[in-house]
Records
---
Amino acid sequence: MTINETIKRINELAHKAKTEGLTPAEVEEREKLRNIYRQNVIGNLRAQLDNTSIKEKDGTVIRLKPGRS
């Protein structure tokens, strides 16, 4: 499942939760999809920070490295 498909399904479940309510299986599916989405966002942010650097006034370049938890 692509991230766009994951987001689409999360939105479908959110709409259903507001209108009809969710079954226990759908609540579990929603949590799993949300976790997949969160991990994707975190991975993308880490990758972006791994490739980010700051140039100081004195000309030195400092590469940012995200803390791993």
---
Amino acid sequence: MDAGELHRLGRRLLALSRAASGQAGDLVLVPGQEAVLEDLLRHPDSTVSEIRDRTGFTQSHVSASVARLRDHGLVQAAADPSDGRRTRLRTTRATTHAIVKRARRTIDDTIATAVAESDQADRALELLDELARILQPRRNDSNTD
């Protein structure tokens, strides 16, 4: 496997992930909004400037994404207790709950649809479990990355 093939596989796995975790009626965010939301999940109580620095997006893009996320009720803002001129952002409890619920959806049906033969689908699920064990660092309860 070369880097190009790994990239294509990564894109395919992302598409399968979206298919497995999404359902009809789920809110669909554009990639920039997803990135801002993910950053806020990892770094609660951030400012727009801090999100900009971590994501590399322009200030205007982060501000627009935050505005859309707030419109959808996914993000809340509060004045910084140490400097009332600054606004701190975090995801709402409902957002966190919805993300956890979506993340727990099984991938079996998605893989069965993607791989026509059931024995190959079962093998793909086994390989994905093995790859996750090998490539993903162990997470402890306090690690959110």
---
Amino acid sequence: MARIKLDLPEHFPFTLELRVRITDVNYGGHMGNDSLLGMLHEARVWFLAHYGLNELDVFGVGLIMADSVIVYKSEAFPGEMLEIAVGVTDFNPYGCDFVYRATEKTSGREVARAKTGIVFFDYARRVIQRVPPAFRELFAADAAPA
């Protein structure tokens, strides 16, 4: 089976630090995949909040996840501080990709690369919506395809 390759942009407009908790550790003694996906979700929430937005109100519409990809580069262990960089790339008429790079803060060791495919969504009507122009404009300079 071919391995997934995930290219990331050079610049990320936002970074959040999160510590690996003991509850994030699996039977292998390292952070579990489910915990990393949760950390990416938290980073996305804080990223949006940085711009005065939230997942249910991005210039009048919500977000819904269409897909996710995580490429692991190294293990992460309890007590380590991760820097999770977040950006927006690859717009289409109804969505975009949020991209992430997780690195261990002290050493700079890359832990993972990830993307979550996002679709804009009207939760009241349960229908997909077009990307709000104000959101696209907010990230136009950073949103070249990854």
---
Amino acid sequence: MDLEKVCFVIIKARQFDAQVEVDDPDSGSNPSDDHAIDVLEALADDPTFEELTSFINALNDDEQIELVALAWLGRGDYTIDEWEDARRDAAEARTDHTASYLLGIPLLGDYLEEGLAAHKLSCQAFEINRL
């Protein structure tokens, strides 16, 4: 498991999860007038979604399998003692739509972080180096 790649997905997933439904599609106001709330709206051509989808699709099969298993572990579907079972089940369930599947999981970033924590890993050093 490449920790840096997982941490990148966690950061981007949190940006994606922070988005809200579009409530003013024809907004022509000045961003400062509406407190820049439009920046959180989930638009059809969302660059965060596109970047995250492309990144996950570019991962090799084993990396995608581990990412799914890690999300399941963090979500509580498996325990750390069942890690190999989670990986096996993720491999058996693997399709060409891994990115869509993962991005459809609410709180994906949190689940991945919990999965890392179960492995006694953290993104803390990665996040510090990105600043």
